[in-house]
Amino acid sequence: MARPTANFRCSECGWESAKWVGRCGECQAWNTVDSVDAPTRAVPSARISAARVAKPITEYTSGSIKRTTTSIEELDRVLGGGVAPAAVILLSGEPGVGKSTLLLEVASRAAAQGTKVLYVSAEESASQVRMRAERTGALWPYLYLASETDLSTILGQIDAVKPQLLIVDSVQTVSSSLNDGLAGQPAQVREVAATLTRVAKERDLPTIIVGHVTKDGSIAGPRLLEHLVDVVCHFEGDRQSTLRFIRALKNRFGPTDEIGCFQMTGEGIEEVPDPSGLFLSRSVTPVSGTCVTIAIEGRRPIPVEVQALVVASSAPQPRRVVNGVDSSRVAMLLAVLERRAGLKLSNADVYVSTVGGIRLTEPGADLAIAIAVASAARDMPIITDAAAFGEISLAGEVRSVSASAQRENEARRLGYETIIGADSPHVREALRIAFDTGSRQEIRGARPF
């Protein structure tokens, strides 16, 4: 009789193999193939009582969710108004971005209102967290602190403290004795996350879990981790800047198109309810190579200044350096400007950057980038009260973008009366408006666009 062979299955995508491999043959993920020892058996159907028989959806009533505010408006905005009962929130971000500082602030404000909070630190000692709490003013009697890495011990702490809010930092550093392997491996992360989620649902306990990210920015561990939790938030920011953003990638209780803005200071983390002036330069006199656009981050319009510099080059391949914008998008816009607007840029070095470290990924910034490059190439500033937004096609057409009315209202609120957008059908017409062709022909001294 043939000896049955062990099966192996990928925890990420479910791909099966007759032998163990280090890399999945389907999703190409490393160290996700585990053995499946138990043979599959047919599951018998269960007897359903009359009270649990499925009913038409029209017979069910929808109850409103009673949320608990975190007293941090920017975070409540992203969560959809606050923390839902029994919700499990996964907060991811790069090392050093400020995840622990943000959650310590959440715990501090909840404890200040009389909410019993259990903060479990699996990465730092209790004394290290205490030092940060002294610096940020997070010392409250209702804030309980434990430094544990064993899952069963954390469950014991929950039984002893009986918290109303649980924070675990982080899921990749907690291990369970029921699984072999070190903490952070897919099987361990899956077991820890599933157990914490089950406890949160059984005890109606809101839980916030910190998750690490890989080099490419995705959450470390099995993909199942994101499916288990209710909300997935990403905390991001540039180490050279104090500005931080939090956005929801998944939210079962609210929208996923909101963004929260924070700023890291020496005393901790602070909210930035109106980031209008963070991404604009402070120059009083008009400068060539600059243009303001109105970007949409979530549902919030944010003014961003795009700066460009064009320098003559004798190199066979001129340089194209960008910061805060997509390099391939800039290369396309340079080709459109040269072909459709008559700007000679193939023999010049072009540098494009944003102010304040923000990153523009939407096509609505195309027009502002094109105007800034044209202003730098002509070494002539645009009119001072102009803001531009719109997508540019390869034919040079300016297309409308989403939330145009919201962008225009924000621009006028900040004093930008000349709005350059979809009303200009072509990039040449947009450039004429930006440089005010009719009244400044004698200043330009160059042929019209």
From TrEMBL:
HAMAP family, A to Z: RadA_bact (MF_01498)
Region (Lon-protease-like): 349-449
Superkingdom of the organism of origin: Bacteria
UniProt free text on domains: The middle region has homology to RecA with ATPase motifs including the RadA KNRFG motif, while the C-terminus is homologous to Lon protease.
Biological process terms in GO annotation: recombinational repair
Family per record: Belongs to the RecA family. RadA subfamily.
Pfam families reported in the protein's UniProt record: AAA_25, Zn_ribbon_LapB
Residues holding ATP: 93-100
RecA family profile domain location: 64-213
Keywords: ATP-binding, DNA damage, DNA repair, DNA-binding, Hydrolase, Metal-binding, Nucleotide-binding, Stress response, Zinc, Zinc-finger
PROSITE patterns referenced in this protein's UniProt entry, alphabetically: RECA_2 (PS50162)
Classification lineage: Bacteria, Bacillati, Actinomycetota, Actinomycetes, Micrococcales
UniProt-recorded Gene Ontology molecular function terms: ATP binding; ATP-dependent DNA damage sensor activity; damaged DNA binding; hydrolase activity; zinc ion binding
InterPro entries: AAA+_ATPase (IPR003593), DNA_repair_RadA (IPR004504), P-loop_NTPase (IPR027417), RecA_ATP-bd (IPR020588), Ribosomal_Su5_D2-typ_SF (IPR020568), Ribsml_uS5_D2-typ_fold_subgr (IPR014721), Rubredoxin_2 (IPR041166)
Identification of the protein by name: DNA repair protein RadA
Function comment: DNA-dependent ATPase involved in processing of recombination intermediates, plays a role in repairing DNA breaks. Stimulates the branch migration of RecA-mediated strand transfer reactions, allowing the 3' invading strand to extend heteroduplex DNA faster. Binds ssDNA in the presence of ADP but not other nucleotides, has ATPase activity that is stimulated by ssDNA and various branched DNA structures, but inhibited by SSB. Does not have RecA's homology-searching function. Plays a role in repairing double-strand DNA breaks, probably involving stabilizing or processing branched DNA or blocked replication forks.
Transmembrane segments: none
Short sequence motif RadA KNRFG motif: positions: 250-254
Cellular-component GO terms for this entry: cytosol
CDD domains registered for this protein in UniProt: RadA_SMS_N
